[in-house]
Design brief:
Layout: E1 2-6, H1 14-30, E2 35-39, E3 52-55, H2 64-77, E4 81-84, H3 86-98, E5 105-106, E6 116-120, E7 128-134, H4 139-144, E8 148-153, E9 157-159, H5 164-169, E10 173-177, E11 183-187, E12 194-197, H6 212-232
Parallel strand pairs: 1-2, 1-3, 3-4, 4-12, 5-6
Antiparallel strand pairs: 6-9, 7-8, 7-10, 10-11, 11-12
Helix pairs in contact: 2-3
Length: 233
Amino acid sequence: MRIALVGDRSPSVRSHVRIPMLIKALREEEGIALDPYWMPTTDVSGLKGFDGIWMLPGSPYRDEAGAVEAARIAREGKIPFLGTCGGFQHMLLEYARHVCGLDVAHAENEPGARDFLLTPLACSLAGHEGLVRLTPGSLIEQIVGTPTTVEAYICSYGLNEDYKQTLARHGMVFSGHAEDGTVRVAELPGHPFFLATMFQPELAGDGRRPHPVVSAFAAAVTRHATRRLAHTS
């Protein structure tokens, strides 16, 4: 079961260092053996052949277009997708541009643009934890199993709330919010697994037990691989 880890790998990014530990934990704790391939944003060719796509933190990415394209491939190809932090931001950017038809930018990538979908947070969440309220019945609420959760962030950009209703009218569901009502989780109903979090579930605990979001993504990858093999046989 091959998964693409989309992001510009760096030993200075904490989540990147955690990934090998989580892959090992999934195998030992849950019996899910994933075969990870790191893919830089500068070359996302071949993504259609993977059973899952995880867009990792580490923005600003080297190539915004590559990150956006990875999210598009996952969305249109029904490939299980998990976006965390920068992955959350660029998943929303892809959806706004290609589904909603918006001419919007990420303020971190294009500070001189006219309209921004992703803007600096009023207070940076870098190195902080915060409460997230989950929408009852949503995918994230079913995964976590509780109405609230406390999660870790290394983030300074979030959704421009002025665009929230436009994305929602086009099918995006915002299923997790901070105490002030700002978006923290987005998901796409009708897709086998399409979930993005502003928080970083890969930083939960000490890395020896995967966060429920990571486990749910791995399970979705397994289902996708099973269907693919059944189809090819």
